[in-house]
Design brief:
The chain has 669 residues and is α/β, with parallel strands linked by helices. The chain has 28 helices and 16 strands. The strands form four sheets. The chain has a six-stranded mixed sheet. A five-stranded mixed sheet has the order 1-4-3-2-5, with helices on one face. A three-stranded antiparallel sheet has the order 13-12-16.
Length: 669
């Protein structure tokens, strides 16, 4: 019996009917039915007391009132006293109603006078007590009525006092009808236990397939193997094998991990459940575990199927690396571990999870039997980026002169999502300029907006600041141009962009998986070029704060050379990198001193080398700055006219090959 059937059964039970009757009774008692109150003056009060009509006197200190209950047979007389003294602070309709009822010979007097109260306002209890003593001096002691004191609460306060009783009924109702609170099949309960899990129908037209994903051919091939496993499970089980219960997608964000999971479900034509890892955590203890249980129970009914948990590091964080004890988080993780590989085997359910941080996941989650396969979905390579550009540019209006190869070369290190954003940003720029199609210029501008930031045309620099920025960026451009291991220049600009860049020098990215020591050193020289140019022109005392970001990158590069890549002879061939959590291991104070001294020495030597390059190119530096101040943006062709052909490794290697050939020819002769 599912939760919906339980809900129908509970709603038709005696318990549910009794609960409704109690609620209506409380509502009637607190808000509808109540005593009839008649306001009286001190003179009215004294007359009623001295004539002996009173039955009970209650002083209410917190409301500064006195409530007078009159004997039933004397109620009409008391009302006549109020009318005779012309007390008009009452609602006249109340008096008229009471007169018509009480003097009607056919009315039931007892039922009408039980809930009539005469109310008098007092300044405080002590003042009332003095006046009351004077009033009762005229009355015989045996006829005196002694007043009572009572604290009265408002309707709202009475409702609050009844809250524990309501909560008890609520807990009982929750125990008998869990589906109403935690969500049933549709997940529509108060705590929405299943509402964060989305289910996709693979047979519905328009679903994502592998053909809809551009590039990423190696990943597609791996996905094809997984799909064949799901489609031909009988062939595997007949050989004694089993289908992997879990597959983990690892890689930088924005590269299609979710799309690949959907494609697997669509290609295999099996149900697909999607949930985010953070949806299993909350403030209510035990709710995350209940959500995991609900998810797998839904999946078991529709197996074979795929469960995709995005950002699984939200619940799968290593228990040994948690900063604080979180029993609910561990409880949720333990429930997931049990369902993935516990006593009960959930054959036919494949769990696919995605994360950007493999190093922080719990070891129990990563072991074979739970996540049997790890698929790394990395940033797209050159060929992949070309296909991704073709995919997204095919959806928009473009001109014929679009160079997709050039766009792919300039976007090395960009994710699939960033490339899609570039194409969309280009359409926005074209529409803003009222163009009918997207040009190459629009795409290049979009790349700058995505990679560097928005251009700030209203950020006006003073002439002196503009001059400093021009020398700074020219220094970067010249040093990188003269060093063969540095990247090729794309553009030098003194137009402010982004949140902090007052100018920038952008370079052509290239596919590179290894970096040599000389490359890292020349990278540091290129970063120091801006500060060196400022010092060369303006002097050491006039250097600006514009190199702060450059110096940060310089330190990080130099530090990695000493501590990770083993490029320091004094320290030796050791690496302090802890690859499990991407942190630096502890080392001694003596080693720390050696590292600090080595970094300083390395940076000082490379800074001296940078200044020598700029001193040799002093005249060219002035020419580039003059042209940069005029145009604000310079391209490689304009820089090449001043500095000559860029020194590159290709030219250098060609010259070495030619010299080797000449030597061989001379030897043979």
């Amino acid at each position: 019996m599912d939760s919906s059937e339980i809900s129908k059964k509970i709603s038709s039970s005696i318990f549910f009917k009794v609960l409704i009757i109690l609620a209506i009774g409380l509502l009637f008692k607190f808000f509808i039915n109540g005593p009839i109150e008649i306001k009286i003056t001190e003179k009215d009060f004294e007359t009623i007391i001295t004539k002996g009509y009173a039955e009970r006197i209650i002083v209410i200190p917190n409301k500064y009132t006195v409530e007078l209950k009159v004997q039933n047979q004397n109620v009409p007389k008391a009302i006549s006293i109020v009318e005779k003294n012309k007390t008009y602070n009452n609602d006249y309709s109340i008096i008229a109603y009471l007169r018509s009822v009480l003097y009607n010979p056919y009315s039931n007097l007892q039922n009408n006078v039980d809930d009539i109260r005469f109310i008098m306002e007092i300044p405080n209890v002590s003042v009332f007590d003095k006046h009351y003593q004077k009033m009762t001096d005229k009355i015989r002691s045996e006829d005196k009525i002694y007043y009572e004191t009572e604290i009265r609460v408002s309707v709202f306060e009475r409702a609050l006092r009844s809250l524990p009783l309501v909560l008890h009924f609520l807990l009982l109702f929750m125990f008998l009808n869990p589906g109403f609170f935690l969500g049933g099949k549709g997940g529509s309960g108060i705590f929405n236990l299943g509402g964060n899990v989305k289910e996709f129908d693979p047979l519905k037209p328009g679903q994502v397939t592998l053909k809809d994903i551009a590039g990423m051919h190696e990943v597609k091939e791996e996905m094809g193997h997984i799909i064949s496993l799901l489609q031909n499970s009988s062939a595997i089980t007949s050989l004694g094998g089993k289908i992997p219960g879990g597959i983990l997608f690892v890689g930088p964000p924005g590269n299609g991990k979710t799309l690949f999971a959907k494609a697997i479900a669509s290609e295999a034509k099996i149900p697909f459940f999607y949930a985010c890892g953070s949806s299993f955590s909350g403030m209510i203890w035990g709710l995350g575990s209940a959500k995991i249980q609900n998810l797998f129970e839904r999946a078991i009914k529709q197996k074979p199927c795929v469960i995709f948990i995005d950002e699984i590091d939200s619940i799968g964080r290593s228990r040994a690396k948690r900063f604080s004890s979180n029993e609910d988080g561990e409880n949720t993780l333990n429930t997931l571990l049990t369902y993935m590989d516990g006593f009960e085997k959930n054959n036919g359910i494949m769990v696919i999870a995605a994360t950007n941080r493999l190093e922080i996941l719990d070891e129990a989650l990563l072991r074979p039997g739970r996540f049997d396969k790890n698929i790394f979905i990395d940033l797209p390579v050159l060929k992949d980026r070309e296909e991704i550009f073709q995919l997204y540019l095919g959806k928009i209006k473009i001109t014929k002169n679009i160079n997709i190869n050039s766009l792919a070369e300039q976007t090395a290190g960009f994710s699939c999502a960033e490339i899609a954003n570039i194409c969309n940003e280009a359409t926005i720029i074209a529409a803003r300029n009222k163009k009918s199609s997207v040009t190459m210029q629009h795409l290049e501008e979009a790349m700058e907006r995505v990679g560097i930031g928005q251009e700030h045309k209203n950020k006006k620099l003073s002439d002196y600041e503009k001059k400093i920025v021009a020398y700074h960026e020219a220094g970067h451009a010249i040093v990188s141009w003269m060093l063969p291991h540095c990247k090729s220049l794309l553009k030098v600009s003194i137009i402010p962009r982004g949140s902090a860049a007052l100018g920038y020098a952008s370079y052509k990215n290239k596919e590179q998986f290894l970096s040599s020591k000389v490359e890292m050193e020349e990278k540091i020289c290129s970063l120091l070029g801006g500060r060196a140019a400022e010092e060369l022109i303006f002097g050491e005392e006039e250097i600006s704060t514009g190199a702060s970001n450059d110096l940060e990158k310089v330190y990080n590069t130099a530090f990695n050379m000493q501590t990770i890549y083993g490029m320091n002879k004094k320290i030796g061939m050791v690496s302090f990198l802890n690859s499990q959590n991407m942190s630096i291991k502890e080392y001694s104070n003596n080693t720390a001193k050696i590292i600090d001294e080595s970094i300083k020495q390395l940076v000082d030597d490379l800074y001296a080398k940078t200044k020598r390059i700029l001193n040799e190119q002093r005249d060219n530096l002035e020419k580039i700055v003059k042209l940069l101040l005029q145009k604000e943006v310079l391209y490689p062709e304009e820089v090449e006219k001043i500095l000559g052909e860029k020194k590159s490794l290709e030219n250098k290697s060609n010259k070495i090959v030619e010299s080797v050939k000449k030597r061989r020819n001379n030897v043979s002769k």
